[in-house]
Specification:
Belongs to the HAD-like hydrolase superfamily. PHOSPHO family. GO terms for molecular function: metal ion binding; phosphatase activity. InterPro entries: HAD-like_sf, HAD_hydro_PyrdxlP_Pase-like, HAD_sf, Pase_PHOSPHO-typ. Keywords: Hydrolase, Magnesium, Metal-binding. It comes from Menura novaehollandiae (superb lyrebird). The structure is a single chain. By secondary structure, the chain is of the alpha/beta class. 39% of the residues lie in helices and 16% in strands. A 6-stranded parallel beta sheet has the order 3-2-1-6-7-8.
Length: 241
Amino acid sequence: MKFLLVFDFDHTIIDENSDTWIVKCAPERKLPNGLRNSYQPGQWTEYMGRVFVYLGDNGVKEDEMKRTMTTIPFTAGMIDLLGFIGENKELFDCIIVSDSNTVFIDWILKAADFHMVFDEVFTNPAAFSSTGYLTVQHFHAHHCAKCPKNLCKRKVLKEFLDKQLERGVSYTQIVYIGDGGNDLCPVMFLKKNDIAMPRQGYTLEKKISQLAQSLSPVQCSVLVWSSAVDIMSYLKLLIKE
């Protein structure tokens, strides 16, 4: 009996968007209008690439970025929840599927000593160039019309489950914890026995309820959370069963 916990990162594990938090490193803690307005829908990764060039051009170094990123607050109750999962790793496999990047997530999880809680992190690969600039790439290519071109979370989840099956691992239930519009695609992939946990008041919750109103509800159960304590209460019930 094993459960798979799938977490988004921004506004789910941390209570902010890591990509917008990094702007605190910019001169006067803001971006020039031209750069800010250069974002085009579905091309967030390209936009962040330009932001990182701007920071690099302004002499913002890796250690300053790291110091800034590790001050991001975790969502209410999340530290307790991750501690609880860490104590029960024999029951839970735990992955992150996020549109952030490997450098930011790695810094934040390691600073709080939570990197051991997660079995795998699926996010956009990032690295510092020889000149000290942070660079970011697309996670993968896909053919899903619903998702941003750099990441379809459904594809990630499906490939992970297929790989686990090859290793002889299957899950009693998948619990998907997220907040954003790009979390809807993987939620629609979940089966009747699985559970989606959208964060209260965020886009994912709104999109799931719109589907229910248009009489094409998601197959899985839905449990809304506002604090990670709500998620922990559910997981405690799950392992009691």
